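Hi support team,

I've been running sequence recovery on a batch of backbones for a student project. Most finish fine, but this one hangs at about 90% for roughly twenty minutes before it completes. I'm not sure whether the input is malformed or the queue is just slow. I've pasted the structure tokens below so you can try to reproduce it. Let me know if you need the job ID as well.

Thanks,
M.K.
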């Protein structure tokens, strides 16, 4: 999920007709020939990866209306072919067409032996038909206090949303997870397959879960890694993320207390806690340059690998100086835009639309601020963050939450017990909503399974269909 971000599953007669229409068989060419920039960006591909375009309706309720081109790639199975496996690494907004090459060289690369690996750029992304926005963010006024700074950021996001959703409202309104899932089914038809397998990571898990809810009978095997929640509510997603971050505060205070001779924040965990929270309150009331209380919250809740860095930065702030920490850590991220259709550029219009067309909340500042204050009461170190809550100010499309259902096709989820980007609790909630088995990975690294020995379980699942409710060690 990058920030980090549906309609009901009942299919009307029109939609059923639209998604059962026979798709045209694709014409494959080497991606080095089919896509401008492929050769320069992926120089080690000597023509092995094939690419094509599949035509889909922009609006599935209007199957005879406007259409889009979806860019699709293929790496053919190296051994005895079992079928096709579509893969989506998430985002939303990031290109995925070269993802099969990444899979093949990872610890889950064994699936390339038995499956054609199919990558695709979702609608609105990469080499698929997309809209770009070159509007700059409105400049923010000098920091005054936490609430006024948050309001200024909210208004800046609102101005960007209004401007960047205005060029082609029909296109933007149809950038949804459900439509992306329906595009996947058109790709399935174009490939001539009765069933597909699917591997999704981060926001790709949302695409997979929605696809399975719509087309369970067309799924062979599906693995969802670093799982999105079954309900995408912006305030709740922020709460879940800070709840995970807060668990890192106490271990860090103990570490600092053991090193009071070096950092001078207190000889006990309680003393360090008091020192750090007082600093957070001070900088919430009166920021120092671009550094606010939110910065303290990030510094106070590091992973163990970041203890020394955070300790030095907090000590610098306590001495009255500004830290070397980038000011962006204290604010919603500024999003550089791309005016050209560079196929490998991240697409922020798609990113914002996918979150806001499908997710609830984030529209009203008073509600956002009230919930922030509630989070600070419960999670005093990390609770001040506003990440997902600032996605959707003045977004013009009414949210249509997902309606996910259980199915019978083989389903495996994997969640990371200490992860912050897609918290483990999201995987648990998704499992309760759609079923399947849940593999627990004991690390805090988003999407790490294809970088650890546990990736062998992914290969085994796609070869045998065996699911796993156990656990494995992750990245240290």
């Amino acid at each position: 999920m990058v920030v980090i971000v549906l309609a009901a599953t009942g299919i009307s007669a029109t939609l059923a007709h639209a998604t059962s229409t026979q798709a045209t068989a694709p014409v494959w060419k080497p991606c080095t020939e089919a896509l401008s920039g492929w050769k320069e960006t992926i120089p080690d591909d000597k023509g092995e990866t094939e690419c094509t375009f599949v035509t889909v309706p922009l609006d599935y309720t209007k199957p005879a209306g406007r259409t889009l081109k979806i860019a699709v790639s293929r790496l053919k199975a190296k051994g005895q072919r079992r079928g096709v496996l579509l893969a989506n690494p998430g985002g939303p907004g990031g290109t995925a067409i070269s993802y099969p090459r990444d899979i093949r060289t990872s610890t889950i690369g064994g699936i390339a032996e038995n499956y054609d690996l199919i990558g695709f750029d979702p609608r609105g992304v990469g080499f698929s038909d997309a809209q770009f926005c070159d509007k700059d963010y409105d400049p923010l006024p000098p920091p005054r206090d936490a609430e006024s700074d948050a309001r200024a950021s909210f208004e800046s996001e609102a101005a960007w949303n209004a401007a960047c959703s205005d060029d082609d409202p029909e296109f933007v309104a149809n950038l949804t997870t459900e439509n992306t899932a329906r595009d996947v089914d058109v790709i399935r038809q174009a490939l001539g397959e009765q069933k597909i397998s699917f591997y999704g990571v981060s926001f790709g898990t949302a695409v997979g879960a929605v696809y399975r809810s719509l087309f369970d009978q067309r799924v062979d095997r599906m693995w969802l890694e670093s799982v999105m929640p079954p309900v995408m509510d912006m305030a709740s997603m922020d709460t879940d993320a800070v709840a995970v971050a807060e668990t890192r505060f106490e271990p860090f205070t103990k570490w600092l207390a053991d090193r009071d001779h070096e950092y001078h924040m207190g000889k006990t965990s309680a003393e360090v806690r008091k020192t750090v929270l007082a600093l957070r309150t001070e900088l919430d009331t009166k920021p120092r340059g671009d550094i606010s209380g939110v910065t303290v919250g990030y510094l106070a809740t590091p992973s163990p690998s970041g203890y020394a860095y955070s300790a030095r930065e907090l000590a610098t702030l306590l001495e009255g100086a500004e830290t070397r920490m980038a000011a962006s850590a204290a604010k919603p991220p500024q999003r550089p835009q791309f005016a050209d259709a560079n196929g490998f550029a991240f697409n922020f219009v798609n990113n914002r639309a996918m979150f806001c067309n499908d997710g609830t909340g984030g529209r009203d500042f008073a509600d956002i601020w009230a919930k922030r204050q509630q989070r600070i009461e419960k999670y005093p170190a990390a609770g001040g963050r506003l990440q997902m809550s600032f996605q959707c100010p003045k977004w013009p499309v009414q949210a249509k939450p997902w309606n996910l259902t259980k199915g019978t096709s083989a389903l495996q989820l994997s969640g990371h017990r200490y992860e912050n980007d897609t918290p483990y609790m999201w995987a648990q909630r998704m499992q309760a909503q759609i079923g399947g088995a849940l593999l627990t990975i004991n690390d805090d690294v988003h999407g790490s399974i294809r970088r650890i020995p546990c990736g062998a379980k992914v290969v085994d699942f796609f070869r045998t269909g065996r699911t796993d409710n156990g656990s494995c060690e992750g990245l240290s």
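--
Follow-up from support: It reproduced on our side and the slowdown came from queue contention, not your input. The two ends are 21 Å apart (CA to CA). No action needed from you.
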